[in-house]
Write a structure and sequence with these properties.
Helices cover 32% and strands 17% of the residues. It is an alpha/beta fold. It has one domain. Bound molecules: iron/sulfur cluster (SF4).
Length: 161
Amino acid sequence: MANPKSKILVSACLYGFCCRYDGKSNLLKDKLFMALKNSGRLVPVCAEELGGLSTPRIPSEIKNGKVISKEGKDVTSQFELGAQKALEIAKKNNVRVAILKEGSPSCGSKRINDGSFTGTKISGEGVLARKLIENGIPVFNENEIHLALVLANGDPNHHHH
Ligand code: SF4
């Protein structure tokens, strides 16, 4: 049976929380996103804060499968813990899809920085995005909200024509 009210996991910084490494938000003013927000369907999470990292914090990038801060500290375990906690929140809320901030070492789903801290992007997934996908929760970015909604609103057992 269709469940048009399924919840959607979102990056807390898109929702408007100031949880970015630099203490700012990525507040998304897209009309569709605002409507979803008002409907109460969005479940905001920041994997990096859930993993115990402070805000503001030293930025990190993924290099050779590890997450390394700009000061050279290995923060892989914090990122993994945060992703695991976010997954548990997703499951508890029966979310069907996630809308996450593109480019982040946690939330990026198509592009991430290459680990050189030069702003160079490569194709790849952040730690949370990968965790969700591995657990059957598709991840879309802030430019793909309409695509996320097709899945979030659709009947999982039927194709509509
Ligand atoms: Fe936003 Fe995700 Fe980074 Fe948190 S981890 S600040 S939610 S992009």
